[in-house]
Amino acid sequence: MGWKESFAIQLLLGLVFVTSGLAINLIQLLTCLLWPINKQLYRRINTRLAYSLWSQLVMLLEWWSGTECTLFVDQSSTAEKLGKEHAIIILNHNYEIDFLCGWTMAERCGVLGSSKVLAKHELLKVPLIGWTWYFLEVVFCKRKWEEDRKAVTNGLNQLKDYPENMWVLLYCEGTRFTEKKHQISMEVADSKGLPRLKYHLLPRTKGFTTTLHLSILTNKNWGCMHNFQLF
Predict the structure, then answer these.
(1) Which of 22, 57, 103, 168 has the smallest number of CB atoms closer than 10 Å to its CB?
(2) Can you give the residue ranges of every domain in the chain?
(3) Does the structure show a pLDDT above 70 at 230?
(4) Are 168 and 117 in contact (CB under 8 A)?
């Protein structure tokens, strides 16, 4: 058994993540005192605090698990722009670790700490991840568009003066891809006269279109498809 598979090592890594995460959340709480005085300083500090926590998970993906993430782009000019401006990153969702792959690319492009998502409202109550997102001004959705429309619009409009380059990572399918979900999704597509998709579920477009129409993100969106090769 390799030392990375040792229970003691795994326990140590878990304890480091939990204790450092709780300490970071406490510091984030204290930084709220800065908000009415210097909002941009608050944001810069919290971006770096979030990076110190998220980077531990990226490390586990790349170093501990040995996962290699390779980004392919159609033009060299595209690669040069990644991380240099605000952007929407549209991702497909097949596995539980998809978000870690997205974070890995964000880390390589220098926007890991400032990356945003549209998260389930239930995650707001989850220590470490949910709490850190709260201080990062992440938008939490209840999946009831009548309530979410205002939350998404107000939340993203508030980010228009964000001082760091940021990515908004969107999983437009809204859930993980499975054969059963795909079958149901394609039945809906047939009933509405929409094209059948082979590798994706029908996207949930309301949150995406609302995000896209914000001036800070217009014309700066990239489509990205996860493709896993197992060894």
Answers:
(1) 22
(2) 3-224
(3) no
(4) yes
